[in-house]
Amino acid sequence: MYKVTWDKKAEKDLSRIDISTAKKIYDQVNRELTINPYILGKELKGHFKGARSYRIGDYRVIYEVDYDIITVQIIKVAHRKEVYIRI
């Protein structure tokens, strides 16, 4: 199983979302991305090359996978309209 770690910016992003949605995102990420983050998220291109995106309702979780140390680093959480603007 993969270990999920949250970047400080991703934690701040999560704190800006309403509490029930944030809890749903946090729980789903910590439950599902630990199993196989490669299959669940889609690979991103361009500026976000090397990162992956996981959809949870209208929100997107941007993360990177380190296969050597079996870790998923959450780097951004935002609404789908805003997530790809800046990381």
Can you give a write-up of this model?
By secondary structure, the chain is α+β, with helices and mostly antiparallel strands. It has a single domain, classed as RelE-like (YaeB-like fold). 30% of the residues lie in helices and 32% in strands. Strand 3 and strand 4 form a beta hairpin. The longest helix is centred in the first third of the chain and has 14 residues. It is globular. The N and C termini lie far apart (26 Å).
* Termini Cα gap: 26 Å
Secondary-structure arrangement, i.e. CATH architecture: 2-Layer Sandwich
Reading the helices and strands in chain order gives: EHHHEEEE
Helix content: 25-40%
User: CATH H-level name... which superfamily?
Assistant: RelE-like
Largest sheet: 5 strands, mixed
**Mean pLDDT, all residues:** 92
In what order do the strands lie side by side in the largest sheet?
A: 1-5-4-3-2
Query: Tell me, what's the shape?
Result: globular
CATH topology description? YaeB-like fold
Number of helices: 3
Count of domain modules: 1
Whole-number radius of gyration?
Answer: 12 Å
CATH class: Alpha Beta
SS-based structural class?
Answer: alpha+beta
Question: What is the secondary structure topology, with strand pairs?
Answer:
Blueprint: E1 3-6, H1 8-15, H2 19-32, H3 37-40, E2 42-43, E3 52-56, E4 59-66, E5 71-79
Parallel strand pairs: 1-5
Antiparallel strand pairs: 2-3, 3-4, 4-5
